[in-house]
Amino acid sequence: MVEYTSEQGAVSVSSSVFSNITGQAATNCFGVKGMAYRSMTDGLVHLLRREAMSKGVNITYNDDKTISIELHIVVENGVNLPAVCRSIISEVRYVVTKNTGVTVRAIDVCVDSMIL
Predict the structure, then answer these.
(1) Contact 73, 26 (CB under 8 A)
(2) How far apart are alpha carbons 73 and 91 in whole angstroms?
(3) What is the reported pTM?
(4) What is the pLDDT of residues 18-70, one digit of tens each?
(5) What confidence tens digit (pLDDT) does each residue in 88-105 have?
(6) What is the spatial distance between Cα 83 and Cα 49, in angstroms, rounded to a whole number?
(7) With the CA atoms of 74, 39, 15 and 70 taken in that order, what torsion angle do they form, in degrees rounded to the nearest 10?
(8) Closest Cα partner for 55 from 113, 93, 15, 92?
(9) In terms of Cα–Cα distance, which of 19, 12, 14, 17 is closest to 70?
(10) What's the CA gap between 24 and 91, in Å, rounded?
(11) CATH-assigned architecture of domain 2-115
């Protein structure tokens, strides 16, 4: 959780806020089918529905009040993976910083599966 304090009060931004913003930004990029989640029971990758997108995002809080993000995604078959990943990194960094004011130190995009 990131907390801002001023003479007017305090504001806390939880992990679920970062996860939801990140999931929305990533799935709006071209070539992304959705967020992915690897099941611990069967080891298979599952495409997450919109309401469960936050399971495909891991947020790490750094000591310098920045965050690091790890995304697990499913992409369409035949897309240029480096281009899609660059687009996601750029979009997520911009949207998270714009909406929360928190600096994003690192974004790791893990492509877990491709769908036809």
Answers:
(1) yes
(2) 14
(3) 0.86
(4) 999 999 999 999 999 989 987 777 777 888 777 777 888 999 999 998 999 99
(5) 999 999 999 999 989 999
(6) 24
(7) -50
(8) 15
(9) 19
(10) 10
(11) 2-Layer Sandwich (3.30)
